[in-house]
Design a protein that fits this description.
single chain; about 90 residues; mainly alpha; three-stranded antiparallel β-sheet; 4 helices; 3 strands; about 10% strand
């Protein structure tokens, strides 16, 4: 199983709370905590928090897919408006 380690700020963002509340939650859940080389304390997510993390990634990908699709549709519409019409391309036909 993968290990996912997050700072208190990152965990707070995942849980919808602040860093201090995330710290308290990590202590309450008895999650592994370690100080990294960069001086930041990181918390190892348990399986339930991993599920939340992966769900948030899936939502982000879905939002990104929708944004890309909207941009492509806008591009098609703009390209259609800018494309020369057939009547403009025809030269005088006798």
């Amino acid at each position: 199983m993968p290990q996912i380690w997050m700072t208190y700020d990152e965990l707070g963002a995942l849980c919808g709370c602040g860093a201090m509340e995330a710290r308290d939650r990590a202590i309450h859940l008895s999650l592994d905590r370690r100080k990294s080389r960069d001086g930041m304390t990181r918390v190892k997510l348990d399986p339930a928090l991993m599920v939340e993390f992966f769900a948030s990634i899936r939502e982000t990908d879905f939002d990104l897919d929708l944004a890309i699709e909207a941009l492509q549709n806008t591009h098609r519409q703009m390209a259609g408006l800018l494309a020369p019409s057939e009547s403009r391309n025809r030269r005088g036909v006798a």
